[in-house]
Amino acid sequence: MSERVTQPEGSQIVIEMWADLGCPWCYVGKHRLQAAISQRPDADRFTIRMRSFELDPGAPRELEKNEDSFIRTHGGTVAHVLQAERQMQAMARKEGLEYSIDRLNANTFDLHRVVQYAGDQGRGFEFFSDVQDGFFTGALNPFDPDALAGVAESAGLDGRRVREILAGDEYADRVRADRAEGLELGATGVPFVVLDRRVAAPGARKVAGYAQLLEQVAGPAPEERVS
C-alpha cells in the first residue's frame, strides 16, 4: 500500500494508527508522529484515528510484572528484559519522554473496548494517548476501572459510560475486527500507521521519517511551496 498522489491543498487527511497500550515503540512512535504533524503550519489538516491491535490476546487479566509478561511471550531472562528496558528508557528520555520500567501489565482487551467508545465520541486518539502516557510515566494503573473512568472524564467523556462498558462486552467485535483489518493491510506488529488509506508505515519512524510520509500524502508544508 503505497501511492504518491497527494491530496489537494487544504483537504483533510486521516491517519489511522494501530497500537497497543504496553508497546514501548507505540509510545515513542505516537509522540514522533505528533511532533511531525505539529511542525507543519497546516497541522489542523491531519486527524489521527486510533485503531485497536492486541499484541498479546492471551495475556492474563491479573496484573503481572513487565518482565514476567515479556518472558512469558518472548522468553529470555529478567536481566535481558531489564537491560532492554533501560536502553528504551534512555532513548525515550533523550526525546523528552518519561519512561518507567516498573510497570505492571495485564490483558488490554477491555481498554481497547473503551477506546472504541472514545473513538465514537471523536476522542479515541486523545483518550488512548492520555492513558498510555500515564502508563509509561508510572502515573496511572490503566487496569483500574475507576482510574480509567477518571482519564475518560478528563478527556470529556462520560465516566459512568466507561464503567458500563467495562462491566459488559460492548465493542468486543470491533476490537477484533480492527486487529483483523490491520493484519489484512500488512501489519505484523505495532505501531502500524496508514495515511489516507494509501500509504502504510510499519514500525516507529523517526520524526523526519513521519514528516516525509506526511509530505507524500499531503504535499509539502505551505511555507515550503515555491510561489
CATH fold assignment: Glutaredoxin
What sort of overall outline do the alpha carbons produce when their principal axes are compared?
globular
What is the terminal-to-terminal distance? 31 Å
Radius of gyration: 18 Å
Q: Which percent range describes the beta-strand content?
A: 5-15%
CATH H-tier superfamily:
Glutaredoxin
Number of domains: 1
Number of extended strands:
6
Supply the CATH class.
Alpha Beta
Mean pLDDT: 94
Query: Portion of residues in helices?
Result: 40-55%
* Oligomeric organization of the protein chains: single chain
Number of helices: 9
Derived from helix and strand composition plus strand pairing, the structural class reads alpha+beta
Secondary-structure element string = EHEEHHEHHHHHEEH
Tell me the strand order in the biggest sheet.
Answer: 2-1-5-6
Domain DSBA-like thioredoxin: 14-214
GO molecular function, one term: oxidoreductase activity
InterPro entries: DSBA-like_thioredoxin_dom (IPR001853), Thioredoxin-like_sf (IPR036249)
Protein name: DsbA family oxidoreductase
